[in-house]
């Protein structure tokens, strides 16, 4: 740093000026007189209304999410998809709600675009509700969020406890606990493996739409669960050999999945703990799909180094997960995943720059970000030796 004093001074001056500008902005925005003026002045009125709406959405967000949870839990969206529009009386009878409560829920869901009034007393799917039908993983995560909501009943205590407190999410994600994960039995891993399978299908398609496997002969997916990602790869890339490496109880489920799909001739599942056991050799492409953000920095660095050691010179690491700092999806990275992973007991969301720095520190020399169609869902990085 001492070799570039002019640059350091310029950066320091820039930070000071930015601090002054932000302080001035905050003094203006926190003035009731300015807010009344902004709401009345024609040029600033749309901005003032937009900010007011955003503030109220933050205040009311939990209620919105509970409306969604109720629709998912009662299978209302699925029911309307299968039956078409229904009257409140018909819908109330199907989901065992009083008609008055059902109408209240329908209006609330309609305001969130989950349901829509079709006229003549009938209610059907809204645009967001229809979109959820196409993405069953979203509904599975909404149901799963009941655990997160329970852990967030006292968010101050949750934060003060650090990552050592006992939470429902920590018990659900069994590998996040204190016991050696390689000793987990099939029953302990079944529930979270099922959830990951449902929610990972969209991620797999997102990756396959932007990454070509041309030039690679053998793909090893680390932490691949019951092979949702590898199964999707198998359908798109016929000649690629496939290996799944996950905890022994999980690998057993993946092995059964390969047999069910008739993939035994080109796909194998190996049981082990990728933080404690040597990684199998022979793959020229290794993937980590929604794995890294579940683990702390020291574990991730160790895993990256292990991957680098077993990759050939022409090989690569394919890393895919939602990342912090994604433009237009900032709250998803730091508010949602940040709090979720804290409640889970390990891991953190990371920016592409942070991941690149960790990869370079682990011995990779070339790292590039591959644009995806839906970056809020997942982003993709390719790291090469």
Write a concise synopsis of the structure shown.
With 385 residues, the protein is α/β, with parallel strands linked by helices. 55% of the residues lie in helices and 13% in strands.
Topology:
Blueprint: H1 5-29, H2 32-40, H3 45-73, H4 76-83, E1 86-87, H5 88-95, H6 99-111, E2 115-119, E3 122-125, H7 127-133, H8 136-151, H9 155-160, H10 168-172, H11 186-210, E4 218-222, H12 228-236, E5 241-246, H13 248-260, E6 267-271, E7 285-289, H14 297-310, E8 316-321, H15 330-344, H16 352-361, E9 366-370, E10 379-384
- Structural class by helix and strand composition: alpha/beta
Shape: globular
The first-level CATH class of the largest domain is given as: Alpha Beta
The CATH architecture assignment of the largest domain turns out to be 3-Layer(aba) Sandwich
Order of strands across the main sheet: 6-5-4-7-8-10-9
Bin the helical content: 55-70%
Q: How many strand segments? A: 10
What's the CATH superfamily of the largest domain, by name? Vaccinia Virus protein VP39
Low-pLDDT sequence parts? none
- Average pLDDT across residues? 88
* Count of runs of 4 or more consecutive helical residues: 16
Please characterize this protein's 3D structure.
- The protein is of the alpha/beta class.
- It folds into two domains: 78 residues, Arc Repressor Mutant, subunit A, CATH 1.10.10.10; 248 residues, Vaccinia Virus protein VP39 (Rossmann fold, 3-Layer(aba) Sandwich), CATH 3.40.50.150.
- The protein is 55% helix and 13% strand.
- It contains 16 helices and ten strands.
- The strands form two sheets. A seven-stranded mixed sheet has the order 6-5-4-7-8-10-9, with helices on both faces. It has a three-stranded antiparallel sheet with strand order 1-3-2.
- Strand 9 and strand 10 form a beta hairpin.
- Helix 3 packs across helix 8, helix 5 crosses helix 6 and helix 8 crosses helix 11.
- The radius of gyration is 24 Å and the shape is globular.
